[in-house]
Amino acid sequence: MTSIGIEVNKAATSSWFAILRALAVIGGVVLANLALGAVIILLIGSSPLVAFRALLAYSIGDAVTITTVRIRAAPLVLSGLAVAVAFTAGMYNLGGEGQIYLGAFAAAWVGFSFAALPSALHLPLALFAAMVAGALGAWIPGWMRTRYNVDEVISTLLLNYVYILFTGYLATYPFRDPDRWSGTTPQIYQSAYLPTIWTRTGLNAGILIAIAAAGVIYLVLRYTDIGYRWKITGLNARFARYAGLEVSRDQLRAMMWSGAIAGLAGGLLVAGSQYRFWAQIGAGIGWDGILIGLLAANHPLAVLLAGIAFSAVRTGSLGMEQASSVPSELTNVLLALLILLVTGRQFVLLALNRARASVE
C-alpha cells in the first residue's frame, strides 16, 4: 500500500510539473508575441511603452473599463465553449457566427413580441429561444454529416452566410423597426433585459451566465457518460464504433449542444447590450470563438480565461489607437500570431514525441 501511495504521489507531482511547464511555455510564447508587437510598433514610428500602457489603461484601468471587458467577454466565452464542445466530439463547427445571429434574432423576436410577460419569465424565454434557434442551426450540418457524410467544415462555413443573410432579411423587411434604419428590429421590452448586478458600472449578469456555462460544460465533459463518449469519439471515432458507441448520435448531440451555446451567445448580445437585433450584431464573435477554443485547447475553464483575455485585448486596443498612432487592427494580427505560435508548438511537440517513440 505504501508503494502504491508513493507512485500516486509521484504521478500527481509529475502532472503538476507538466501543467506548470505548459503554462511556462505558453507564457514564453506570449512574451515573444509581445516583443514582436513592440518591434512592429517601433517600425511604424510609435512608442511600445505608450501603446501598451494605453492598452492596459483602457482594459483594466478602472471599474468602468473592467465592466466593459466583462460584458463583452460573456458572448466570447460562450462562442469559445461552443467550439470546444463540438471539437471535443470530433466535429468541426465553424458555423458559430451564423448560429449566433440565429440566436440573437430569436431572442430579439421574443423580446419585442411579448409585452405582458413578467421579467422572471420573459428573459428565460428569450434566452431559451436563442438556444433552440442556435441548436437548430447546428443540427442541419450535423445531420448532413452523420446521415450523408457531408463535410461539416464546408457546410458550417457556407451556412454562416445563409443564416446571416436570412436574419438580415427578417430585420430589414417583416420585422423592421419603422422608426430606425434598415436591418434593425424594434427594441426589446425591459422585462427581457439581463439584470444588473453592479449598478454603479452597469455590469449585468451575462458574465455570470458565461461562468456557469463554462462550469457546466466542464462537469459534463469530466464526470458524465456523454462527456466521456464525446472524448472517446473525438480521439478515435473508429475505436469508439468498435467499442459499441453510437458515434453518429453522439456527434449530432455535440453539434446541437454547440449550436445551443452559440445561440445563447447571441441572446446575451441582445439582452445584455444591444437590446435589439441589427444586421451586424455578431461582429466576428463566432470567428473569435474558434481562436479562443484553439488557444484554450478546448478546455472549458481555459476557454473562460481566454475569452476574458480576448475581450480585454480587444477593448484595450481601441484605447491604444486613441492614445497613440498604433491601429487597433494590430491586435488582431498579434492575436492570430499567438494562436499560430501556440498551435505550432503543439505540432512540434507531437512530432518530437513520435520521433522519440520510433527511436525507442
Structure, described:
The longest helix is centred in the N-terminal third of the chain and has 42 residues, at 2-43. The chain has a two-stranded antiparallel sheet. Helix 3 (63-88) packs antiparallel against helix 10 and helix 5 runs antiparallel to helix 6. It contains 13 helices and two strands. The chain has a domain at 89-290. The model is unreliable at 1-8 (pLDDT under 50). It is globular, with a radius of gyration of 22 Å. It has 360 residues and is an all-alpha fold. The protein has helices spanning 2-43, 48-60, 63-88, 96-113, 119-148, 152-172, 206-223, 225-235, 237-242, 247-274, 285-295, 300-323, 329-359; strands at residues 196-198, 203-204.
